[in-house]
Automatic annotation (TrEMBL):
Belongs to the inorganic phosphate transporter (PiT) (TC 2.A.20) family. One of its GO terms (cellular component) is membrane. Keywords: Membrane, Phosphate transport, Transmembrane, Transmembrane helix, Transport. Its main location: membrane. It is a multi-pass membrane protein. GO terms for molecular function: phosphate transmembrane transporter activity. GO terms for biological process: phosphate ion transmembrane transport. This is Phosphate transporter. It comes from the Bacteria. The chain crosses the membrane at residues 35-56, 63-81, 140-160, 197-219, 231-254, 260-282, 303-322, 350-369, 389-406, 464-489. It is found in: Membrane.
Length: 494
């Protein structure tokens, strides 16, 4: 053995080099980790394009359809990253579900809703915003739908990046409107329809917030503020579960089963009433058994609301998959139909492979990018527990039923986030009311200063303003982006 290999300094140098190497491996893994999600997303988008070429069914492979499928997959990923978080955020924020459990449940139920109960026919002009007759040629129509798809996906991606939950349906609406104006002028837009959609910016969150606050007031008055909370819970928790079951049954009968059978509002309400009463009767002994041995404190009540909250979150995901996925893949379905038939139709059938791209894209988007928005909705706007989160879930189902009955266009995203805001602002009002009531009996020196009371606000105003601003500019921003993209696409092709 050489003298150099026996030198202790030589071994010290080797140890230092190996230590640096281990640090290099750790640093490489740390840098590569953020690239995993985009890498998987890119692979899914490429596979979607390949699948479109294979399943389109006409030879030769149409590159326009392949490109539309690529952007449709990109849109579906963004829906999973942004829109689905509104259904699962409250349950995660209330610690009724872990992040992994929420993602697994949402992925299964969103996909099931899209594939089993999703609409098999969609309005290609997104709820009659643009008249099909306004488009001069099929080529112009195809590029308009492509521009709408790209702009909606880009806008939802940007909103997710800044942490703002927005309506993907409104993004598509804005994209269709902008491309329609660029292709056929302002006269092509159905402005009364756009006015109704603009009204939903206010109606959806306000109605959702009022309903959620109303249920929280009911739970506080009838259960939380009672001397014997457990006895009160045994009476009222089954009633609330019955209301939840009835609301979701009516909601799914009205909105989620249209592929199987057409159900009108009165029939849906009767189905909801019947199943709600059954659920109320069934859960009375279950809640009584579950509440045995619980201490007379608020923490015990969280146990009773945990399972119903998880079920409601799953049902919300199913309903969202059944209703919103079709709107998201509508432009893609319109492009496929126009390319295959060589003409424009007001309503088109959605091919199964298009729905599969939408369903899988939502699941991948939720898994890869959803936790950021789930955390924001669930814990960063206001603090949620199972009772408050349950009020948000109830509000989402009941508000859609009320809006459908009144014929009002609403956004499920705005309703859910509005419900979170409603719960938070009600907590502020209730805390202030109780503070004023107790201050009447306190000495002046023990009262809380106004500055301190403002600091204790229970809704983060920064998140509130960010979300409201994102909602207001969603349609205009998507419209402007869509018009620019349409001009670019048209210039490239011609």
């Amino acid at each position: 053995m050489s003298n150099q290999s026996q030198d202790p300094d030589h071994f010290d140098t080797l140890d230092r080099d190996l230590h640096r190497l281990s640090h290099l491996e750790t640093a490489t893994q740390y840098v590569a980790r953020p690239m995993v999600a985009p890498g998987i997303s890119l692979a899914f988008i490429v596979i979607a394009g390949i699948a479109a070429g294979l399943f389109y069914g006409q030879a030769p492979i149409n590159l326009v359809v392949v490109a539309a499928a690529v952007f449709g997959a990109y849109m579906a990923l963004n829906i999973g990253a942004n829109d689905v978080a509104n259904n699962m955020g409250p349950a995660v924020g209330a610690n009724a579900l872990t992040m992994g459990g929420a993602i697994a449940i949402a992925a299964v139920f969103e996909s099931a809703g899209a594939l089993l109960a999703g609409g098999d026919v969609v309005s290609t002009i997104s709820k009659g915003i643009i008249s099909p007759d306004a488009m001069d040629t099929t080529r112009v129509f195809i590029w308009a739908m492509m521009a709408a798809l790209i702009s909606a996906a880009l806008w939802v991606n940007l909103a997710t990046w800044i942490g703002a939950p927005v309506s993907t349906t409104h993004s598509v609406v804005g994209g269709v409107m902008g491309a329609g104006i660029a292709a056929a002028g302002f006269a092509a837009v159905n402005w009364p329809t756009m006015g109704a959609i603009a009204a939903s910016w206010v109606i959806s969150p306000v109605l959702g917030g009022v309903v959620a606050a109303g249920f929280l007031w009911f739970i506080k008055a009838r259960i939380i503020y009672r001397d014997d909370k457990i006895a009160a819970a045994r009476v009222w928790v089954p009633v609330l579960i019955g209301i939840m079951t009835g609301a979701f049954s009516a909601y799914l009968a009205l909105k989620g089963l249209k592929r199987i059978v057409k159900i009108d509002m009165s029939t849906a309400l009767m189905i909801g009433l019947a199943l709600g009463v059954i659920a109320w009767l069934v859960t009375i002994p279950l809640i009584r058994r579950q509440s045995q041995g619980l201490e007379n404190r608020n923490k015990s009540l969280k146990v009773l609301f945990g399972v119903p909250l998880v079920i409601s979150a799953a049902l919300l995901s199913f309903a969202h998959g059944a209703n919103d996925v079709a709107n998201a893949v509508g432009p893609l379905a319109a492009i496929v139909h126009a390319t295959a038939e060589g003409g424009i139709s007001a309503k088109v059938a959605i091919p199964h492979w298009v729905m599969v791209i939408g369903a899988l894209g939502i699941s991948f988007g939720l898994f890869l990018f959803g936790p950021k928005l789930i955390r924001m909705v669930g814990s960063q706007i206001t603090k949620l527990n199972p009772m408050r989160a349950y009020c948000v879930a109830l509000s989402a189902a009941i508000t859609v039923i009320i809006a459908s009955w009144l014929g009002l266009p609403v956004s499920s995203t705005h309703i859910a986030v509005g419900g979170v805001f409603g719960v938070g602002f009600f907590r502020e009002w209730d805390a202030e009311r109780r503070l004023r009531k107790s201050a009447e009996t306190r000495p002046a020196e023990a009262r809380i200063a106004p500055e301190e009371r403002r600091r204790r606000k229970l809704v983060r105003r920064s998140h509130f303003m960010t979300v409201i601003a994102a909602w207001v500019i969603t349609v205009p921003a998507a419209a402007v982006m869509s018009a620019l993209i349409f001009y670019i696409l048209n210039a490239i092709v011609t």
